[in-house]
Structure prediction request, 251 residues.
Amino acid sequence: MTDHNNSTVIGAAPKGAGDRASAARAVQEMFSAIAPRYDLLNHVLSFNIDRVWWRRAARTFAGILARRDARALDLCCGTGDMAFALRRLAGESGAAIVGADFAHPMLVRAVRKSNGSSLRWVEADALNLPFPDESFDLVTSAFGFRNLADYDGGLHEIVRVLRPGGELGILECSEPGGLIGKFYGVYFRRVLPAVGTAISGVKGPYEYLPASVGRFPAPTDMIARMRNAGFREATWTPYTFGTAGLYRGKK
Ligand SMILES: C[S@@+](CC[C@H](N)C(=O)[O-])C[C@H]1O[C@@H](n2cnc3c(N)ncnc32)[C@H](O)[C@@H]1O
Prediction:
């Protein structure tokens, strides 16, 4: 479904959700339910490549993160791993880093994992952020943006809180094409949901994962949406044979 004129809202649509509000509620409940096993499942199901992806995405923004006067926001931070990767790169003397998420149990785990490092955690909806206009130099989101009930709404909210010249990095799952895509498809659509459901003990979220990646705009469409929202130099860099990738743009 492609809509560059924003006449149709497109976003995450978990099973049974009929509108934007019920989709957001279902996503919030889903992540709250799997929070206790989220980290374990992330590492198992990605064969630990998730750590490489967070670090690689963070390195992309090393210049901004090194600046003492800079502020970075990690949206949909979950249990905090992308924010921790940003913190490690920034060092304690670099940018101030804020993590935001709307699932309370995920944030509780982020706080527990913080271990004295100087991060700020905020319980907030990415579609209605409690920050003034132009308050960040960098916004990142790892595997979270795909879950928003309104992708264009999410991009506009990010543009609002970014300072002019500020940068965006969205790390997302994707599905590769060709022969690799065929093998990956079997893993992603059959093995992953079965293992995820067994370990989490919760039916639904790990079936939603491949469905939500399938619904997410293809890179060319997503880049067009980023441009429409006001980003220039919008690009997508595939990671690990295109099983994930980083969208970048500048306000
Ligand atoms: C797949 S997890 C990713 C967590 C973390 N960024 C990571 O890389 O592991 C997606 C997260 O997005 C959050 N999320 C989804 N929609 C959101 C929204 N509208 N506002 C804030 N957080 C949201 C969920 O609560 C969940 O914690």
Q: What stands out?
A: Residues 1-7 have pLDDT under 50 and may be disordered.
